[in-house]
Design brief:
Layout lengths: L1 H6 L1 H11 L11 H31 L3 E2 L12 E2 L2 H14 L6 H21 L5 H17 L11 H22 L5 H20 L2 H21 L8 H17 L13 H5 L1 H17 L11 H8 L3 H24 L3 H23 L6
Length: about 375
Amino acid sequence: MNTFLAQNPIFTVVEEANQRLVTNGEFVAEASALWICFFTFILSMFLCLYLTPIVIEAAIRYDIVDRPDGRLKTHKKPTAYLGGISIYLAFLFSLALTIKFSEVVLGLLLSGTIVILLGIIDDMRALGPKLKLVGQSIAVFVLIKSGIHIKVVFLPQAVCLLLTYIWLMATINAFNIIDVMDGLSTGVGVIASLVLFVVAVINGRPMIAVITVALSGAMTGFLRQNFAPAKIYLGDAGSMFLGLMLGSLAMVGSYTEGNMLGFLAPAVILGVPIFDTMLVMYIRWRRGDAVIYGSPDHFALRLRKWRLTTRQTVLVSYGGGFVLGCMGLAMMLSTYWPVTLGILGFIIFAGLFSGYLLKKIDMTL
């Protein structure tokens, strides 16, 4: 089996592309490497398109569904859970056919597997919030042990590891929190992963580029059944898996060659779920409610309560994710720090102002 993998031309192309990177962070835009990325995206997308109806049938047969409750869950009929399984399998199979499983890739997949299993148990309503946080922490520990963590030269390693833990726990739960509307978390994840693909190209990291397109392809295929009206939901398994993968892929990029403020670019690229998390936590805290329990305080639910339809709300969120992704790339590429500071200031002002307006929407009626 190892001999076959070593002789497989797909593996050879990616490995040779990794060996021909230049030291200035410029990507060697060879047609072969770009074709591998395109092939991986298409393969992952069609695998997910094939697998998702099978998962829907299995979830309905074994009654693993999300039932309306008239409060937070307002969909009209029980909808299949376990969408994360089809994304995970499409992601895994497409990577198995395109890249070698290095220690980093194995660490990424192992931690992702832990989160998927954790989410499946939670989707079966057999896991409390505290145990879920423990399981997430174990997945993050496995990822760090494989060598994937924040690396900042002027910070002690202990601080970098602590920042890694905080960042990954934040992204895992941010994508879990934002998954309150058909196609919202998945579509925002597609946009973020494509932006991270551009980051990988700029950084000259073909293997990371292939991983990002494998993830975006799987999410694109899943969106076919997840967009409104959704036939299947991500569930905790899918949303947490996306949060872990995107948080990890955002973390391994290089953002500070142009200016030191570029290290904030990953938070901007994943700004939509991070904004929703901060908004929800703030409103619940002001009300005196526990931040770990559900409530109709999400920006998407507030926009829909205001005057937008579900599809309009989701498309507005996609637009916000795209704009923030472009701003994150601009922060990364800018060599003039006042420009980066101006972009950051605008994002902070826009976030605070949007939060103020959203908080004024009455959600009690």
